C-alpha cells in the first residue's frame, strides 16, 4: 500500500513526560481511519504533530509520494501541503450565510492577495453548491450560520475544510453533542469525503466508530496498542484492559 502519511518512531515529551512514545502510523491516500483510546492516550498530541503545532523530539513524519519530511515545517506550510484539521468547536462565521461561508473558504484557497479582488465565478458558485449538497445544507444556503443547529454548523465547517481540497482531513470528535440523526449524516459525509482523500477521525463514541466501518487505531500511553477492524481491536485483551473494560 502506498502511504500518504507515514509517521515512524515519533516521540514527544512534555517536561519529561512522554506523551507520544515511539509512535508509528500510516494512512493511504483515500482511506478512512478512526483513532480511539482513553483520555490522555496522545490522540490530540498525535494530530498536533502531524499539523506542525507540536514538534517531535525524535522520529519522522513523511508526506506524499516523495516522502517530504513534515517535521520542521511550519503549520501554514503543512496546511498548504494539504493537511486540514477540524477542531471540536466549529469556527464558522456566524453572521454570514451558509453560502458566504462556503464561498469564503473557496476564496481562501486563492491566497490573501487574490482574495482582495475576488468575485465568485460560475465554476466557484457551482463548487459551492456541490459542497452544500455534500454536507446536506443545500436548502439552507441563505441562512446565517449562527442560526444553524450544532450539527449543521459542524457540517458547514467540514464543507469549508473540503473547499480547501485537503489531501488529509483530521477530525476531532465530530459526533460530540449531536443528535442520532445528525450522527448518521456526519458518518455519511466522512465516508464520502474519504473516497477521495484520507480522513482521520478521533472519536470516543464507539457506536459512531462502528458506523464509520473502517480500520481503527487504538492509542494508549502514546503508542499504538492495536490496529484493525473494530471487532478485531475490541476483542483484543489489552484494549479491553486499558480502555473498554474500565
Ligand atoms: N502542552 C502540554 N504540556 C504538558 N503535558 C501535555 C501537553 N499536551 C498534552 N500533554 C499530556 O500528554 C498526554 C496526552 O495528551 P493528549 O491531549 O494528546 O491525549 P488525548 O488522547 O487527546 O486525550 P483526550 O481523549 O482526553 O482528549 C496527557 O497526559 C496530557 O496531559
From TrEMBL:
Pfam families: ABC_tran. GO terms for molecular function: ATP binding; ATP hydrolysis activity. GO terms for cellular component: plasma membrane. PANTHER family: CONSERVED COMPONENT OF ABC TRANSPORTER FOR NATURAL AMINO ACIDS-RELATED, HIGH-AFFINITY BRANCHED-CHAIN AMINO ACID TRANSPORT ATP-BINDING PROTEIN. This is Urea transport system ATP-binding protein. Keywords: ATP-binding, Nucleotide-binding, Transport. Residues 5-246 form the ABC transporter domain. InterPro entries: AAA+_ATPase (IPR003593), ABC_AA/LPS_Transport (IPR051120), ABC_transporter-like_ATP-bd (IPR003439), ABC_transptr_urea_ATP-bd_UrtD (IPR017781), P-loop_NTPase (IPR027417).
